[in-house]
Amino acid sequence: MTDVLNIGLSVLILGLAVWTIVAREAYAAVVGFIAYGLLLTLVWVQLQGIDVALTEAAIGGGLTGALLIGAAARLRGTETAARAERPRSASRCLAAGVSCAVAVALAICVLALPEPAPTLAPEVLANMAVTEVGNPITAVLLAFRAMDTLLEAIVLLFALIGVWSLAPDRAWGGRPGLLQAAGPNGMLAFAARALAPIGVVTGMYIFWIGADHPGGKFQGATILAAMWLLVMMAGLADAPPISRSWLRGLLVAGPLAFIGIGAVGAVQAGAFLAYPEGFAKPLILVIEFALMPSLTLILGLMLLGAPQRGKAP
Amino acid sequence: MNLILELWTVVAVVVGAFFFFAGTVGLLRFPDSLTRLHALTKADNLGLGLVVLGLLPQVDSVSAGLKLVCIWLLVLLSGATAGQLIARTLHQGESRS
After folding, report:
1. Cα–Cα distance between A226 and B89 in angstroms, integer?
2. How many angstroms away from the CA of B88 is the closest CA of chain A?
3. Positive or negative torsion for Cα A207, A211, A212, A214
4. Is residue A6 part of a domain?
5. Interface of B with A (CB under 8 A)
6. Each residue of B32-71: pLDDT tens digit?
7. Residue A12 and residue A241: Cα distance in Å, rounded?
8. Cross-chain residue pair B81–A187, CB shorter than 8 Å
9. Which positions ≥6 away from B58 have C-beta within 8 Å?
């Protein structure tokens, strides 16, 4: 029974992947990509990777999907012109050939892996008690490989700066996104009022439970950012101007706290991002709490896009 | 008693699956956007509702059952909102052209 489900899932995913590539309209391709992300979530659940499944659903399907829908809507005007200058069939065949070669090389690498595959999982489980964290994924992300998580947070911040740098000069320092015209008594406002409290509780729960069960700050922050966007789309609140100092302070607070704790570790425990003995869990909590608002704001502002409305009076 | 509950699960889930099937067929075959929307929201609301009702006797704890019902209610809320928004956009597009 499970085999039938797995085979059906694989066939559906491969079909959707092909559809995403061959779809002519950008919008259709994006819709295919979102469905592909949701099916990939099911694959991770089947593989017992609940943490990865949560991240895939929140960031791979939801957030990236919303970003791509925005991009497709912007490109709609120029799409016919772009289609006219399709590359010649020779270069398209070359692209397809190179892609297939990469896929075959990857498949050979995966199939050639020794059985059982080399893994550090037993060492993580053996040393997890030191961190006092119950979820091995969190232990890896915030203790054993904390450097990767720090760099991820910084990359997100750089991405937001990149988005902001697309702003025209007259709008610099202003509010991102377009002014929403939805009425306060409309359907969307009702949904935002009903859904936002539930979403905020769910996001905080997923953030907090990350210490011992699947969950964590990235997934929680994505849900919180989605609720923030919903409230702004419904016209119940406006986006803050990007020149506000509280906003900029909160954006850098998370990564700065992370770097600060890492520097303390360099002095106290002998290595950058090493935690002094006995302080691992409290320091991990401090980092998580500092990163959560930064990530929520970064993800939300990234979806809102570059500032488009002039400086607030 | 157990047999009745098992039977209820099978019947409700099968009927729910039928609604999803009918909704998908409607989505593919109906002539215009409003009727397609109708087919889609029927599948979401009734199909998922019946599947959830059918699975309720099979859960281990009260909290798991409550979670299932919550999922259904959230899908109802988001489905109704999205349906309204799409229908309104269609309506405005028609009156403009």
Report:
1. 22
2. 10
3. positive
4. no
5. 74, 77-78, 81, 84-85, 88
6. 888 888 888 888 888 999 999 999 988 888 999 999 999 9
7. 43
8. yes
9. B5, B9
**C-alpha closest to that of A223 among A281, A163, A292, A122:** A292
Contact between chains at B84 and A198 (C-beta distance less than 8 A): no
Measured between CA atoms, how close is B3 to chain A, in angstroms?
22
In a domain? residue A278? yes
- Number of structural domains (chain A) is 1
Helix (H, G, I), strand (E, B) or coil at A261: helix
List the single residue in B with minimal CA-CA distance to A193. Answer: B77
Answer yes or no: is A210 within a domain.
yes
What number is the average pLDDT over the span A245-272?
A: 89
Which range of residues forms the domain containing residue A136? Answer: 120-313
User: Which chain B residue lies closest to A190 (C-alpha atoms)?
Assistant: B81
A194 interface with B at CB cutoff 8 Å? yes
In whole angstroms, give the CA distance from residue A242 to residue A311: 9
Question: Is some CB atom of chain B closer than 8 A to the CB atom of A195?
Answer: yes
DSSP string, B19-82: HHHHHHHHHHH-SSHHHHHHHHHHIIIIIHHHHHHHHGGG-SSHHHHHHHHHHHHHHHHHHHHH
Question: What contacts A155, CB < 8 A, 6 or more positions away?
Answer: none
- Residue A191 in contact with partner chain B when CB distance is under 8 A: yes
Average pLDDT, chain A: 87
Structure tokens at A67: 């970003």
Per the structure block, which two tokens stand in for A82?
């772009």
**Nearest Cα residue to A153 out of A288, A301, A307, A303:** A288
Task: Tell me if A191 and B81 make a contact (CB, 8 A cut-off).
Answer: yes
pTM: 0.86
Nearest to B54 by CA among B21, B92, B7, B3: B7
Of B77, B85, B88, the CB nearest to A195: B77
- The Cα of B65 is separated from the nearest Cα of chain A by a number of Å equal to 17
Is residue A174 in some structural domain? yes
Residue A38 CA to residue A157 CA, distance in Å, equals 26
Question: Rounded CA gap, B18 and B10, in Å?
Answer: 12
Tell whether ipTM is more than 0.85.
no
